[in-house]
Every structure is written in structure tokens, then in C-alpha cells.
């Protein structure tokens, strides 16, 4: 693992991977969304409104996955003090924030026809909103603190403390009496969705995962290059002073 | 989609638009950073040549 954590090696390998990830993301996203919108049968109770799950479920799942990724990377950054771990966490934050915003937006569009309201202070919805604020807080720390080492430490602590919200989101529907329905995909005894609806949903989830890999790699590459740019600017300034 | 179109289409639309914008800006930023890095490397090389 440490071998791949070398920034130069990481840059070289990730540049080979990202074009393939991008193509796979585009293909799976088109298949998943088209299948969900036009091929999957309408639900006998919810009609076509249920099609929102093909974007809402992957976005919600990824909002938690991204935060988990950020928390693990932050823990690695704190324990081994490897800058690549901190940069990985930093790169994942805006992606996670977008997924969370999408989960909330698509969820509210689901809520109106199903529950009769766009928003309710339900445990699942509220904990997901808290997650969005955690992402904002994490990104604000990186922007507010100029010293990157200090910013990485403070941001890592924010990420780790906020990680307590992930099991709260996941189990909120079991722990409290909520309007949001309980899990129908990741539960003991297997998924309770018909295969005609399950397959496009799984393909959409795969597409969102591939999207995350592609974009996080681009963003990590960018952060590594920016460090190199800072180093080069200092060297150029020194050369000019000496010359 | 019937009466549910007003809920389904904006959901898919928002996903496509937001993911496209985030993906494009991330890719563009990386390309711009690579360009800046190459320019600075060239500048440093020129400065080193002048010293010699």
C-alpha cells in the first residue's frame, strides 16, 4: 500500500487508470439511467414515481460512502502522516457534498408524491442534512487554514468526529419511527426488489461508484500537481534571486 | 411518466447536470494545473540554461 502512496508513482498509475474509468462511468451511467427510466416496469403501487430510486438510492449510498472514504483517509493521514491520504480525503469532500445534495433533492422530489410533502424533520432526512453540513464544514476548514499541515490535521479531526453520523443515517430507519421506508436493498435475507428493478439499480450504483473513482483521481492528481507547482515557484524565485 | 413526470425528470436532470458540472470542472482544473506545471518546468529550465 505504501508503494502506491508515493505521489509520483500514484500520479503515473492513476493517469493510466482514469481514462478507462471515465469510459466505464459513461457507459454504465447511460445504461443504468436509460434502463431505469424507460425499460424497468412501473411499480404497481407507486407508478412511475418510483423511478426516482434509480438516482436517489445511488446518490444516498455514495453520500455515505464518500464520507467513509474521507474518514478512513483522514485516519491514515493522522496515523502515518502521509500527505497523499490527506489529499485523498480533501479531494473526496466536494464529490460527497454533491452526492448528498442530490440525495436530499431527489429525496424531496420523491417525498412530495409519496408522503405529500417535500420535507419533514424525519430522522433519516435530518441526519442526511447534517451530513451535508459536515461536508461544508470539512471543506471550510481546508479553505480557512493557510498552513496545509495544520489544515490537514484539523480537517481530519472534523472528518473523524463526523463519521459518527454515518451509522446514525444508516440505522435511523430502524432506531426511530420514521416516515422514510426501511432498507430494501442492503438488508439481511437479501434485497426485496424484483430483479427487473434491481438490475438497473445495481448498474446505477456501479456507475456512481465509477464516477467517484474517476473524479476523485482527477482531483487528487490536481492537488498533487498544485504541490509541485508551489515547489517549482519557490525554486524559480530562488533562481531569480541568485541570478 | 404521467403526473409523476414533474418529479421524475427534475431528479434525473439534476443528477446529470450536477455530475457533469463537477466532473468537467475537476477534469479542467487538472488539465490547467498540468499546463501550468509544464510552463514552470520550462521556465526553470530556461533559467538554468542562462546560468550555465
Brief write-up:
The complex is a heterodimer of chains A (243) and B (52). Chain A is mostly helical.
The percent of residues in helical segments of chain B reads over 70%
> Biggest interface: chains and residue counts?
A-B, 42 and 33 residues
Count of DSSP H/I helices of chain A: 7
Major pleated sheet of chain B:
none
* Envelope shape of chain B: rod-shaped
- Report low-confidence residues of chain B grouped into runs of 5 or more: none
Low-confidence stretches of chain A: none
Number of strands of chain A: 0
The outline of chain A comes out as globular
Quickly count the helices of chain B. 1
Determine Rg of chain A (CA atoms, Å): 21 Å
Let me know the number of strands of chain B: 0
How much beta of chain B, percentage-wise? Answer: under 5%
Q: Can you give the mean pLDDT of chain B?
A: 91
Q: How much beta of chain A, percentage-wise?
A: under 5%
Task: Give the overall average pLDDT of chain A.
Answer: 91
Main attributes of the structure:
heterodimer, A: 243 residues, mainly alpha, B: 52 residues, 90% helix, 0% strand, rod-shaped
Explain this structure:
The complex is a heterodimer of chains A (243) and B (52). Chain A has 243 residues and is mainly α. Chain A has one domain. Chain A has 7 helices and no strands. By secondary structure, chain B is mainly alpha-helical. Helices cover 90% and strands 0% of the residues of chain B. Chain B has 1 helix and no strands. The model of chain B has no long low-confidence stretch (mean pLDDT 91). The chains are: A mainly alpha (243), B mainly alpha (52). At the A-B interface, helix 1, helix 2, helix 3 and helix 7 of A face helix 1 of B.
